[in-house]
Design brief:
single chain; about 290 residues; mainly alpha; MetI-like fold
């Protein structure tokens, strides 16, 4: 009887939950699943449960999906399933490093620009607007070409691309908040700029960053895949979805569909989960009533 009541309560609350809550729930579930895969895959490879994603000498090339190779093998005999699973960790690692660096650079610059104003604000706005007007993929391609292939270089290219977005959002919010009466009161009492930025402005402008971070992560996964597809991302020895799709380009027309299906599907589901999480968080935050205190 207790179990029936619990199931009825869960079903009732789930059926009455709004769309944003459901999107955030499923998005978070997908992201956590990919995070678990990213953490467990290297451990399973070390334990011998999964094969090395670069080892293919003992396997037939372009083997179709079977019990031995669930997702088949590629042109070098490498297990497509293992490379797809290992690609989850690579994608999350590169995207996380890039966005955290962009966050650490863009947020302070935006706060300083919005608070100080004057020539500092004009200079930073001109620089960031110039970067922002360039297409994301085009700018990342140019940066990746200049920096070369490699995991740190790919993260650096993505970092530069997303700095202007954090700068613009934080700068606009800082300019609005600094005109509030509590900021003027603190300034009149002798509070310095650093203290005001840390004590009052940071906690007021940081609320929109999680949503932007999640949506940028979805976009960054696609950009990283695009770099790999163009041959500008990571070396072939590192399992990465875009690079695997580029290698499968000539095989798919001959009927070897599995080399492209599983990396592409993994990328699609992760982007979908991050988009759901970001949109759900944005809708939920916008629906929250403003606090009067």
């Amino acid at each position: 009887m207790g179990l029936q009541r619990l199931l009825h309560l869960v079903f009732t609350r789930w059926s009455t939950a709004n769309l944003s809550g459901r999107m955030a729930f499923w998005g978070l579930a997908i992201v956590l699943l990919y995070a678990a895969i990213a953490l467990l895959t290297p451990l399973l490879i070390q334990l011998g449960v999964l094969s090395d994603p670069n080892a293919g000498l003992d396997s037939p090339i372009y083997a179709s999906p079977s019990l031995h190779h669930w997702c088949g093998t590629d042109r070098l005999g490498r297990d497509v399933c293992v490379r797809t699973l290992a690609g989850s960790g690579v994608a999350l690692q590169v995207v996380l490093i890039a966005l955290l660096l962009a966050l650490a650079i863009g947020v302070p610059l935006g706060m300083v620009s919005g608070y100080l104003g004057g020539w500092v604000d004009r200079t930073l706005v001109l620089l960031m607007d110039t970067l922002y007007t360039l297409p994301v993929l085009l700018l990342s391609v140019v940066l990746a070409f200049l920096l070369g292939r490699g995991l740190p270089n790919a993260a650096a290219a993505l970092c530069v691309v997303y700095i202007p977005q954090y700068f613009r959002v934080v700068r606009n919010q800082t300019a609005q908040v600094k005109a509030e009466l509590f900021v003027e009161a603190a300034r009149s009492l002798g509070a310095g700029p650093l203290w005001i930025l840390r004590r009052y402005l940071l906690r007021n402008v940081i609320t929109s960053v999680p949503v932007l971070l999640t949506l940028n992560a979805a976009d960054a996964v696609l950009v990283l895949g695009g770099l790999g597809f163009l041959g500008l991302g990571l070396p072939e020895t590192i399992p990465e979805w875009g690079g695997d799709l580029q290698q499968a380009l000539t095989a798919v027309p001959t009927g070897i569909w599995w080399t492209a299906l599983y990396p592409g599907l993994a990328m699609f589901v992760l982007v979908l989960g991050l988009s759901f999480l970001g949109e759900g968080l944005e809708s939920w935050l916008s629906a929250q009533p403003e606090r009067s205190d």
